[in-house]
Amino acid sequence: MGKSIHERWKEDAYYYEKRAAEDENYEETKARVEKKKAQIIESLKHNKDKIKQMEERLSKKNS
């Protein structure tokens, strides 16, 4: 089985941070890193909400 979404996101965040450290346009890249981190955090929150909804539906179905 492939990597989980969370693992891929962590790798992406690591890649962007590493790239920011090596990049000549450090400030611009750093801003992209922060934007990407914010997107990842929002996606994780959204996924947690989706999981909660699914669990609620399943528990109602099984009742």
From TrEMBL:
Coiled-coil ranges from the UniProt annotation: 19-61
Keywords: Coiled coil
Protein's name according to its UniProt entry: Uncharacterized protein
